Amino acid sequence: MTAPPRLSLRPILLMTAVFLVPMLLISVYAWSVLPVDAQIPTHWNARGEVDDYSSKSFGLFFLPLLLAAIVPGIALLVRIDPRRHHVEQSQKFLVAVSASILFVMAVIHTSAVLVSLGYPLPMDRIVATSVGLLFLLLGNFLGKVRSNFFMGVRTPWTLSSELSWNKTHRLAGKLFFAVGLLTILLALIANGPLAIGAMLVSLLAATLITIVYSYVVWKSDPVRLETPNAQ
Question: CA-based, 20 to 30 A from 117: which of 66, 77, 81, 86?
Answer without folding.
Answer: 66
